[in-house]
Amino acid sequence: MRSSSPWIDFDLYLITDRKQTGGRNLEFVVEDALRGGVRAIQLREKDLSSKELYELAYEMRKLTTRHNARLIINDRIDIALAVDADGVHLGYNSMPIYRARMVLGEKKLIGVSCHNQVQAIIAQEKGADFITFGPIYNTPSKALYGDPVGLKRLQEATNIIQIPIFALGGIKADNVAEVMAAAPHGIGVVSAIMSAEEPRLAARTLLSLLPAPESDLET
User: Fold this and answer.
1) pLDDT tens digits, residue range 90-143?
2) Is 101 strand, coil or helix?
3) In this structure, what are the phi and psi dihedrals at residue 24, rounded to the nearest 5 degrees?
4) What's the rounded Cα separation, in Å, for the pair 79 and 71?
5) Residue 147, CA distances (Å) to 31, 138, 143, 159 in order
6) What share of the chain is helix, strand, coil (3-state, %, to 5)?
7) How far apart are CA 159 and CA 128, in angstroms?
8) Whose CA is closest to 109, among 85, 91, 82?
9) Residue 14 forms beta bridges with which residues?
10) In Å, what is the CA distance from 217 to each residue of 150, 206, 214?
11) Which region holds residue 97: left if phi is over 0, alpha if psi is between -120 and 50, else beta?
């Protein structure tokens, strides 16, 4: 469901993976994407130590602040608080949503990864601000989560979920149109920008393919 919620003021959600940058510095790729118009970054580098992740998150907070963008930290509420990130993104095995809300307060965003309608409904009922839903297509980064959910299940989810849904998994410039036909709020991507030769251009291309928010259409 497309949303004009002021809390979710982005429709392209970039999820980091420094192993997909082709040897380039992660900060360089992210800043190039921010210059291309990305306004929300999820820092998702699960194999780093707490110290390494904190240092990287600190640098990402400086970058996102400079470009007026959101910073969401995957799973690590302590790191999110330490760098004053805009929120966290939780998974199935993360802290319960209500507990995360108690720690973070009402002004921070909580995103939740969902792979079926039941998970999406529960996330909404428990107080998530938005969800990612997928994988929509086959993609190596989401192979652990089973077969792709496909566009039909995405459409079914957008029909019943009221909070913003970001379609995720195997989304590229050439399939954005068919994904958005299912009416999610926006898209989440990893390799489409992380692995792009020119992240700034890749970001601009993806953003150009997304429909304007309803609030923009009404003015």
Assistant:
1) 998 899 999 999 999 999 999 999 999 999 999 999 999 999 999 999 876 555
2) helix
3) -80, 155
4) 11
5) 33, 7, 7, 21
6) 45, 15, 40
7) 17
8) 85
9) 41, 189
10) 28, 19, 5
11) alpha
Cα–Cα distance for residue pair 90/69, rounded to 1 Å: 20
At position 153, the amino acid (one-letter code) is R
How does pLDDT run across 7-32, given as a tens digit for each residue? 799 999 999 999 999 999 999 999 99
| Joined tokens for residue 211 | 């429909």
Predicted pLDDT at 138: 85
- Which pair of tokens denotes residue 114? 């969902």
Q: Which residues pair with 188 in a beta bridge?
A: 13, 168
The DSSP result for the chain, as a single string, is -----SS---SEEEE--GGGSTT--HHHHHHHHHHTT--EEEE--TTS-HHHHHHHHHHHHHHHHHTT-EEEEES-HHHHHHTT-SEEEE-TTSS-HHHHHHHH-TTSEEEEEESSHHHHHHHHHHT-SEEEE---S--GGGGGG-S--HHHHHHHHHHH--S-EEEESS--GGGHHHHHTT--SEEEESHHHHT-SSHHHHHHHHHHTSPPPHHHHH-
Task: Report DSSP state, residue 16.
Answer: -
Q: Are 47 and 53 in contact (CB under 8 A)?
A: no
